[in-house]
Amino acid sequence: MAEAAELVAEIEALGARLAEARASVAQRFIGQEKVVDQVLAALLCGGHALLVGLPGLGKTMLVDTLSTVMGLHSSRIQFTPDLMPADILGSEVLETAADGSRAFRFIEGPVFCQLLMADEINRASPRTQSALLQAMQEREVTIAGQHRPLGRPFHVLATQNPIEQEGTYPLPEAQLDRFLLQVDVDYPTRAAERDILLATTGATETRATPVFDAEGLIAAQAVIRRMPVGDAVVEAILDLVRSCRPGEAEGRDLAGSLAWGPGPRAAQALMLTVRARALLEGRLAPSIADVAALARPVLVHRMALSFAARARGETLSGLIDRAVARSLKLEAAA
Length: 334
Hints:
Elements: H1 2-26, H2 33-44, E1 49-53, H3 59-69, E2 74-78, H4 85-89, E3 90-96, E4 102-108, E5 115-119, H5 126-129, H6 133-138, E6 140-143, E7 146-149, E8 155-160, H7 173-176, E9 181-185, H8 190-200, H9 214-226, H10 231-243, E10 258-260, H11 264-280, H12 288-299, E11 304-305, H13 307-312, H14 316-333
Parallel strand pairs: 1-8, 1-9, 2-5, 5-8
Antiparallel strand pairs: 3-4, 6-7, 10-11
Helix pairs in contact: 1-9, 2-11, 10-11, 10-12, 10-14, 11-12, 12-14
């Protein structure tokens, strides 16, 4: 009983701190509350996020603001076709000492940080993209046969332009699966855009203030994993994920529209992010509504349409909505 009361107190304290962090982000990144909450959820869960949106919608500003608010040492990489893996990871150089002796010294690349912004990640070649695979999954890199740990915590927030595809290299499925969420950044509302105009075209610029630090974020990630998840929510997650797999019995309704579906990592992502969403909304435990709200950002980059579905003009978002409706109906009936 004492442990439960202690956990409730920790959750409530973290919720108040997160409200302060959201307010600090809103001072510089105006509007787009859903986008902010989803990226914060990814950080709270210890994961990475892929921000997909048109140019000029503030994706870079959001990442820069979050690095300040969360108190993380950040680096930025502008991905280009001529970028090489060593430009990300670092390399060894041969140095000559004053006594004439020579030795290799490792120069760290920008990946050695706590928050890495991978700007326009799909503009780099597959060889360079693959340099992030080990970093994103294992939080370390192997260079010249030596394992080198990255910052703690370590998060990748990558951006991608959905319309300008000339000269780009689509991310492989294995790398997409390593992103906890795909966050779609849309146009702001009229009211939000008016606030942006007034706040950003004056003589002074509002700056965000730090709320967390690295140790505080790690502690918050531990609290998230201790939050309880009810059996009904667990079953809803399983129903939803399995209904999006064409090879499963639960996925028979969508089998003709999907080439492949999400793996267990998608269910793990939902188990974590529903807790973060509940916490951001001031609740002590997640609900099935949280599963429905996070279905798209968790699943959309972990599925692929079949050729027939593309010919019919179907979309992954539409299929996920159908799967959500079906899964929640089954859950309600149970």
